[in-house]
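Let us practice reading a record.
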Amino acid sequence: MKIINRIFDYRGVPVLAVVFFVLLLAESRRQLRKCNQLRFKRMVINTAVSIPAFTLLRFLLLPVMAKFAIKNKQLHWGFNYQYAAHPIIKTLVAFLIMDYTNYLWHVLNHKLPVLWRFHIVHHTDIDLDVTTAIRFHFGELIGSVFFRGAFVFLSGATALQVLLYEVLFEGATQFHHSNWKLPYLLEKRLNKIMVTPRMHGIHHSMIKQEADSNFSVIFSFWDRLHHTIRLNVAQDMVVTGVPSYSHPDELTIGYLLKLPFTRIRTWQSPADVKDVRASIPGKNNLAE
């Protein structure tokens, strides 16, 4: 589709590539969390795992969502076609609906076993940096087509709004997965509106209660709205990954691609760490 070429391929992808390498450089100079593995090895693994997923993103998810948006324009059926407002207002409403439904999709990926078996590939990364933002299994992308496509249709978003949101979505995902240590006060202010590296770092914790929090993608207020926010864990206390998949030598490219089709191991958070976390005050206060 020409609009995907024009908006996503020729403009969005170059912007996302620049954002990726800027964050890669920034987190190299100002590291938030100590790394446990060789960065280059993880970069190779995460890139290889991402290739099937991003192929499906470009040639399945984006075309489906764009076609739903075009069909909606013909039918004038979605939410945004039910009222009169300035195009900027309608774009903001479309973005909010798409971002909120992505929050819900993320929650479902953690709560439903059939979805978790694919999403777990993302969470098994033992370190967390900008390369983790591309570590998604292709099965998760296939599942998202139905959910995200349905809400694009219901929202009444245009094809342009869908593609612009997707670029913003991917850029925000890169940002909050990065290991970039922003000045604490700056991040604390940013976090009132958007998801930041400290906030999302807690979501990748080996402690189940922490991993089951901070589900937002762009706007952080969805977690506040649903009381799923947790900000009080300092980054030097966060141990990243899934306890039952904590051996780096096991997490090869081939193993990660076949992982969803194997028996998924039970998550067992270390009891001593969980007890320490329970005593930390100020659940909604961003820890330095």
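A brief commentary: The chain is about 60% helix and 0% strand.
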